[in-house]
Design goal:
With 373 residues, the protein is of the alpha/beta class. Helix content is 38%, strand content 21%. A 6-stranded mixed sheet has the order 3-2-1-4-7-13, with helices on both faces. Strands 10-9-8-11-12 form a 5-stranded mixed sheet, with helices on both faces. Strands 5-6 form a two-stranded antiparallel ribbon. Helix 8 crosses helix 9 (254-264). The longest helix is centred in the N-terminal third of the chain and has 27 residues, at 63-89. The chain is globular, with a radius of gyration of 20 Å.
């Protein structure tokens, strides 16, 4: 069967759509194609505004109305990206079993019993002519879990289809980093969020350099790590918690970064701040990676940051750090591909979360189904 997945992550830069061929009878998975579409500037800014804690609108504005209008526009952007990929492949909606859609995370507070990924599943189903599974995280949170990360079950399935089942790990470098760790065939999957990856570096690039991100890590490479500032950043209580744990912009945002710089109380160049943010992103991964891992596959937008990946490889040696492309899956497509697989599990009524990762009380079928009929 052909399955599609669509994802917009915490970097809030656009929509990734991936197509897989899956054979549920034998666990076979094959990558077909992928497409990325950037958000237009106005939509991206509205999404970033809605992620701010607290969200502050202009006096007299209807906050709920603003959010619902943004949900509509986001959903239409998803639909356009999905239709574009179908056009690229020359396939019709009836050839696709299901579309898994993540939506945009606006709030993630499993400690308070909620997580919210904004998307209109009914509108997406109508616009694409596909059955849509969305709202994947809520069931896990309802069962006492973190609702994140959900991709480890897909990582496990993909690695198994390529012959890897032990002493291996997958590192996703999105706005935040998360790990999937395969111990051995008899042991549960380990994993969880590590901490900020691209999100704070992207915010700093925008604020100080007028750029959406630090392409290739060139700004970070031009600076020096400020060890005392790094120590200040690492005092966030999230880093002292053990898995299962998850995080997001509720914990790490520009206001938090400014507060850390104020607490540090010393002048630091903009380039040195970027270098220090990258060093923090490396450090939190190193702190989370178990010492029995021999090989680490890197994916996500941060996999294209050569300086970031080189610093990871140096810090994690002798672990072999490899691109996920070595397993036949483009780095930028992994999370979208994961949500296609999660949607397939949902329509087959098969559990898809990893309680050993999220802390949920049990495994469960995830997501809400919106049919196109």
């Amino acid at each position: 069967m052909i399955i599609l997945g669509a994802m917009s992550g915490t970097s809030t830069d656009g929509v990734d759509v991936a197509a897989l061929h899956a054979d549920p009878s034998n666990g076979g998975l094959r990558f077909i194609s992928h497409r990325s579409e950037s958000f237009d500037g106005a939509l991206r800014q509205r999404l970033l505004d809605l992620q701010q804690v607290p969200f502050i609108s202009k006096p007299g504005e209807d906050q709920l109305g603003l959010m619902l209008a943004c949900r509509r526009d986001l959903t239409l952007a998803y639909a356009e990206s999905v239709r574009a990929l179908m056009s690229d492949l020359g396939i019709e909606p009836q050839e696709i079993r299901v579309l898994g859609a993540h939506g945009q995370t606006l709030r993630h507070r499993p400690d308070l019993g909620f997580t919210y990924q904004m998307l209109d599943g009914a509108l997406l189903a109508v616009q694409t002519g596909l059955d849509v599974v969305c709202d994947m995280r809520s069931k896990d949170v309802a069962l006492g879990g973190q609702g994140a990360p959900l991709v480890p079950s897909f990582h496990q399935a993909w690695l198994a289809s390529k012959g890897f089942s032990t002493r291996s790990a997958v590192l996703n470098l999105g706005g935040f980093s998360n790990l999937t760790v395969l111990q051995d065939a008899e042991s549960p999957v380990l994993g969880g969020d590590c901490g900020p990856a691209n999100c704070l570096m992207d915010l700093w690039a925008k604020e100080k350099f007028g750029l959406d991100f630090d392409e290739g890590g060139s700004i970070a490479a031009s600076g020096q790590v400020d060890e005392r500032l790094l120590a200040t950043l690492l005092t966030h209580p999230f880093f002292d918690r053990s898995w299962p744990k998850s995080t997001g912009r509720d914990d790490f945002n520009f206001n938090w970064l400014k507060a850390c710089l104020a607490q540090y109380g010393h002048a630091v160049s903009n380039q040195d701040v970027m270098a220090t943010l990258m060093a923090m992103a490396v450090e939190v991964v190193k702190a989370c990676l178990p010492n029995f891992v021999d090989r680490l596959f890197v994916c996500g937008g941060g996999a294209h940051n050569e300086v970031f990946v080189a610093q990871l490889a140096l810090s994690l040696a002798p672990v072999q750090v490899s691109p996920i492309e070595d397993l036949g899956l483009p780095a930028q497509a992994v999370e979208a591909a994961a949500f296609s697989w999660l949607a397939m599990q949902s329509v087959l009524r098969l559990p898809a979360n990893c309680p050993s990762v999220t802390g949920a009380s049990r495994s469960a079928v995830l997501g809400a189904l919106h049919t196109c009929q």
